[in-house]
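Sequence only, no structure available. Ideas?
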Amino acid sequence: MDGAGKPVRVVLLGPPGSGKGTQARLLAERLGIPQISTGEMLRAAVREGTPLGQRVKAVMEAGDLVSDDLMIALIRERIAAPDARGGFVLDGFPRTVDQAAALDRLLAGNGMKISAVLNLSVPDAALMDRLAGRSGQENRADDRRETVLERLRVYHEKTEPLVEFYRRRRSLTDVDGMGEVAEVAARIGESLEQKQAAGGVS
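Reply:
I predicted one. Tokens follow.
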């Protein structure tokens, strides 16, 4: 929660390799609210070999997006958990305009709204370098060069319109995602404070 005790609900956007997951974790820790990472939730299901995991494994390794219905069901269940009452940082959701509209309906139905939408901006060339390095360190199947290119293509085709969706609603703040982790975290904190001072998202 913020200093006034109001729930803080943040959507953190950014392309693959932008550092979104790291920044979402740091912001969640700073605010004392959960980071809701749909990617982590899905990867956990894959590791555990659950029926859900078996369904999404092939989709994730191909760099495609999991269906809206499945993602929305995951989010609905997660934000209803007790630890999310004070707010949350959404990392990896929404990824499409349809998901954003579904999220709006879901929150409105529970008397909630998003406090801020922050978008990490990183050039594609830097993203390729970051993801190639991560692939070598972690041996992640979804970070092979071919899959990285496909993930970026899918991002530009299906997720980038989401940035414009929120921008048209004047609820989006761009944050420079280049630089050291601490530098980016500081920019995110400043952007969130400015958004809250301006009254948040209408």
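Residues 96 and 160 are 8 Å apart (CA to CA).
Hope that gets you unstuck.
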